[in-house]
Amino acid sequence: MIDGTRKFHEQDVEVKKEYYSSDPTARRVRYDSNLHVYKSKGKTANWKDSLIISGIVSGHNEPEVCRKTSLEYINHVIKLEDTLLGLLSEALGLNPNHLKATECDKGKTFSFNYYLACQQAELTLGKHTDPVFLSIVLQDQNGGLQVMCDNQWADVTPIEHALVVNIGDLLQILSNDKFVSAIHRVVAKNVGPRILVACFFTGLLVAPKMYGPIKELISKENPALYKEFQVADYMTEFFSKPLHKNGVDLFRL
């Protein structure tokens, strides 16, 4: 998958521009550059190019240069997510099928990211959480991924053939803070290119599906900490705020 991502991004720009769009609603398979650069309120900006595949992967519209590889990889990641949801349900003291029954696995977005060498790394993407239930991340051996731990940044050292799993904002809300959304960032470097593939599981975006703290986890002693929401509304709020601000606070009671 790392090789397939590199092959797409290192094609001639005339080939890649067929997929280009900065509008996330314009097409299911799109190529974009420096996401959030106009939305970060002057704080930070991304330093990456991204091939983004949203929703169902058909095997027809994806770029031919990485089509076979991406289909195989995505299918494996979806199976892994099913296993993880079962384990996380059990960790909450629930039936293994509970989280899957909420349809939090239905919405999917896959981002194949390519980071060029950056001479002003301090101006690139700062800390953030993911507005999703789970994200599953593959990074190459160049690293750059960091997670906030005990109020300081810790490198997530690349391990060959290993994946990184992040809890996202939406699972923090469903678990009523029993799980905590991972604060993380990807640090730009003055060497490159570096590659990171992220699979985001967003749940159902369409109305009238509502999400909120799981009722089985709520009691008089442990009241609900968040109001119910639709995923589309959460996404709108998340992407209209400064990227470094915490998204879950927008829905906290």
UniProtKB/TrEMBL annotation:
One of its GO terms (molecular function) is metal ion binding. InterPro entries: IPNS-like_FE2OG_OXY (IPR044861), IPNS-like_sf (IPR027443), Oxoglu/Fe-dep_dioxygenase_dom (IPR005123). Keywords: Iron, Metal-binding, Oxidoreductase. Coiled coil: none annotated. This is Fe2OG dioxygenase domain-containing protein. It comes from Solanum stoloniferum. Signal peptide: none annotated. It holds the Pfam family 2OG-FeII_Oxy. Belongs to the iron/ascorbate-dependent oxidoreductase family. Residues 100-203 form the Fe2OG dioxygenase domain.
